[in-house]
Protein: RNA polymerase sigma factor RpoH
Amino acid sequence: MTNPSTQAQALMLAVPGNNLDAYMRAVNAVPVLSADDEQRLAGQYFYEQDVDAARNLVLAHLRFVVHIARSYTGYGLPLGDLVQEGNVGLMKAVKRFDPTKGVRLVSFAVHWIKAEIHEYVIKNWRIVKVATTKAQRKLFFNLRGQKKRLGRLSMEEAQRVADDLGVTAIQVKEMEGRLGAYDASFDGPTNDDEDSTVVSPAAYLHSDNSDPADLLAEQDQQERESRQLGSALMALDERSRDILERRWLADQKSTLQDLANEYGVSAERIRQLENNAIKKLRNAIAA
Structure:
């Protein structure tokens, strides 16, 4: 794709530094395209190389790059940098998008956006010989989410992670060691060709969750439920809130007997308090 317009470039270049909040307000102000409008713009660029059409496609999907980039903030890298890399993937996707395939652009672009963010994460973790195969990449990006605590995995925990990811416990322990080697140099080879027009068939797989309106609605619903849950928790008495947090939200959950011993009541009484608190939460959220 030829260079986007000045407006599109300004939005993308605004990501780094102290302009992240302003950037997010700007991209969220861009209307979401309907399926018909998206198909029309994609056709204009695909058949006529209409740069303005490509610009509008990019601008309308910048908010989804932010949505995807947020899921990678656990690696300790700046969100602005993650968004910037995702934007590169979005532009590559717009360049290669074929509107005749019958899928929405966001469903196609998510593969390119994540691919750019993956490369950025791996390079900036600077891990020796990590992610040189597809299996290693999968393990790298899943291991952190599988770990239940910050300490080293025991062999039993490593085996559980291995079973979940379809690898061996030895591979899990090796990858865990690489994750801890943050300062090691990494200049891993890559076979990616930015100018290649060859697109994997997997990029055109239909996703039932690919409608932009549905994605926005889901995000808004999750944020609303999170706020409601927080407010409902704060409305509980201190003992009920403590029981729920330690039974459901803590990394190392307490048993009924643990709490019974601490509060000087029976385990059955703790169970009753827990059930009553859950009922209050449900009623508060429903209201």
Remarks:
- The radius of gyration is 23 Å.
- The longest helix spans residues 212-235.
- The mean pLDDT is 75.
- The domain at 236-286 is CATH 1.10.10.10 (Arc Repressor Mutant, subunit A).
